[in-house]
Amino acid sequence: MSARPANPHLASEIISATAAIVEERGPEGVTMREVARRIGYSPTSIYLHFANKDELLDQTVNRAYEWFADEIESRQTGTSAVERIRQGAHAYLAWGLANPGMYRLMFEWGYLGDISPDAIFARRRSWRRNRQIVELGIEQGVFDRSLDSAVATDVMWVAMHGLTSLAISGRMYGNPNMVAADEVDRRAHALADALADGWLADWTATSPL
To answer: Could you tell me which of 54, 26, 31 has the C-alpha nearest to residue 43?
Structure first.
């Protein structure tokens, strides 16, 4: 029997399968055997790319941050900083509600994994983009020139993370198994708008440049 051809996409397929398991069962439900079963390979093949489960989950977290940033950026299509900030808030929330397992893995999983400066820099891609948008607002004269763009970006992140985590956990709108998903979605997005209203009102320039 001839050897199976090498698969250049195997590592990516492993991570995608891991992400699917995390959504269904949480990180505790991930095993090398189950990942291998889903992609049609032996568990040994997984170990050719990832030393152990912790490394596999860590790399899945890295990929999740990429997916997260890609989604937010794809929705920030407005021409003004104000539009992009509001779009970014809704995109953040929408991604978390659509991917609750991965969101928890990214922000709540106990294992810290790779926290090297390079890893942290890569994972903060969406934060850097939002800071650039705040700085654009300052340049456009929409936001006050004294606004600290880093602090403003932290305020947005903390608010949206808190809202998203509470909505996912059921502590905001009730047990997710008992409350309709569209009701959670509607109420959470209404609150995202209210949060954005508050930021934008606070940051608005009070005098012309």
So the answer is: 31
